[in-house]
Write a structure and sequence with these properties.
about 55 residues; 4 helices; mainly alpha
Length: about 55
């Protein structure tokens, strides 16, 4: 999955990239740079899990 697709998932969830970066344990800047390259299936699943966790009330 491309970085643009990941960013779209985050946006559709009503979240910000810094929130995902914080849960991944990296800085917002590093996450922004990471979005420039495709993500592996494992990374995508981890990010989707973080999105689901953050969306819960």
């Amino acid at each position: 999955m491309s970085g643009a697709e990941i960013k779209q998932l985050i946006k559709e969830a009503g979240l910000k990239c810094w929130q995902i970066a914080e849960r991944l344990g990296i800085t917002d800047g590093n996450f922004s740079r990471r979005l420039r390259k495709p993500f592996s299936g494992e990374e995508v699943e981890r990010i989707k899990a973080i999105i689901a966790e953050l969306k819960e009330p």
